């Protein structure tokens, strides 16, 4: 599903002493099937932006188009289309509430009156996507799982709705490195298999570089930079001005280029570690393993 924002602003507590402009005239297009990394300093407007996608927030001005639905300050996203947008909040495990994992994951699809067998199939499939074994976990209490497992159950609950767009607000916050990889690899796999439009809010440039094919860099309620990762990472100085890191590979390529003579310099489009290694091996003509 294609998403566009056309001159969207959002003002919290308008007309009160607490008024706060959180988004200023945002215009952007997210093509169907893309994986968008949304990066930015704390308070830059990332969560405000994504909460417009499922109707939790309404634009103060401007217009948002989600597929063929149009949202304006006066026109809400129709209820039937809300289920197309799967929004995974920060710390989604806080919203688990059922007595078993299977019931929790089934909650959304049951609310949409799907037949029981279909719900069961979706629960099984969604748990497996997030790397949990249905038979082992289905009857357990979600509250007796590890933090990482709880997070995965919560994510499965959103996937069981079979959304057309998946929006994730820092899904790996607070997890250990192994837990982060499991969650992100699961998300990336369904994004690829189902061509699912995916928006990932993250504080980690490394995560953005690994998974996203398009980046939005937010600063003070505006889009400071946007484009393919290699385009955005060329603006190393601008990113640093915004107190954002660049991925280690980008920093390394930029450092090596300062040392190498011009004709030997490395392409600045290299931003993933494995691509840099492949490039260096090719230059050295070392045959790759396997
Ligand atoms: N409910 C609210 N009422 C008033 N102001 C708010 C509200 N929610 C957010 N803001 C303000 O809007 C601005 C953008 O906040 P937002 O949560 O969208 O940023 P963020 O980039 O998601 O930050 P973080 O990375 O910390 O989650 C901030 O200045 C914040 O203080």
UniProtKB/TrEMBL annotation:
Keywords: ATP-binding, Cell membrane, Membrane, Nucleotide-binding, Translocase, Transport. ATP-binding (A) component of a common energy-coupling factor (ECF) ABC-transporter complex. This is Energy-coupling factor transporter ATP-binding protein EcfA2. Pfam families: ABC_tran. It comes from the Bacteria. The keyword Membrane applies. GO terms for molecular function: ATP binding; ATP hydrolysis activity; ATPase-coupled transmembrane transporter activity; cobalt ion transmembrane transporter activity. Belongs to the ABC transporter superfamily. Energy-coupling factor EcfA family. SUPFAM superfamilies: P-loop containing nucleoside triphosphate hydrolases. InterPro entries: AAA+_ATPase, ABC_transporter-like_ATP-bd, ABC_transporter-like_CS, ABC_transpr_CbiO/EcfA_su, ECF_ABC_transporter_ATP-bd, EcfA2, P-loop_NTPase. Forms a stable energy-coupling factor (ECF) transporter complex composed of 2 membrane-embedded substrate-binding proteins (S component), 2 ATP-binding proteins (A component) and 2 transmembrane proteins (T component). Its EC number is 7.-.-.-. Residues 3-245 form the ABC transporter domain. GO terms for cellular component: ATP-binding cassette (ABC) transporter complex. It is an enzyme of class 7 (translocase). It comes from Brevibacillus antibioticus. SMART domains: AAA (SM00382). It is a peripheral membrane protein. It is found in: Cell membrane.
């Amino acid at each position: 599903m294609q998403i566009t924002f056309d001159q969207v602003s959002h003002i919290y507590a308008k007309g009160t002493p607490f008024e706060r402009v959180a988004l200023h005239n945002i215009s952007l297009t997210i093509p169907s099937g893309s994986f968008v990394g949304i990066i930015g300093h704390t308070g830059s407007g990332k969560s405000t932006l994504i909460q417009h996608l499922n109707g939790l927030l309404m634009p103060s001005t401007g217009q948002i188009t989600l597929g063929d639905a149009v949202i304006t300050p006066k026109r809400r996203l129709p209820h039937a289309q809300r289920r197309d947008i799967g929004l995974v909040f920060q710390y989604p495990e806080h919203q688990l509430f059922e007595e078993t994992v299977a019931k929790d994951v089934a909650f959304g699809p049951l609310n949409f009156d799907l037949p029981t067998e279909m719900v069961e199939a979706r629960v099984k499939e969604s748990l497996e996507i997030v790397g949990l074994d249905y038979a082992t976990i289905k009857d357990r209490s979600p509250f007796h799982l590890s933090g990482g497992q709880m997070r995965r159950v919560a994510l499965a609950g959103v996937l069981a709705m079979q959304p057309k767009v998946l929006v994730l607000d820092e899904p790996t916050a607070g997890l250990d490195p192994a837990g982060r990889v499991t969650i992100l690899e699961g998300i990336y796999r369904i994004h690829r298999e189902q061509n699912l439009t995916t928006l990932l809010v993250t504080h980690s440039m490394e995560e953005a570089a690994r998974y996203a094919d398009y980046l939005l860099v937010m600063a003070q309620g505006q889009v400071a930079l946007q484009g393919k990762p290699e385009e955005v990472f060329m603006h190393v100085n601008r990113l640093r001005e915004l107190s954002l890191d660049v991925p280690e590979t980008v920093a390394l390529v930029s450092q090596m280029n300062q040392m190498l003579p011009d004709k030997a310099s490395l392409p600045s489009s290299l931003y993933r570690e494995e691509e840099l290694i492949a490039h260096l091996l090719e230059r050295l003509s070392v045959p790759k393993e396997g």
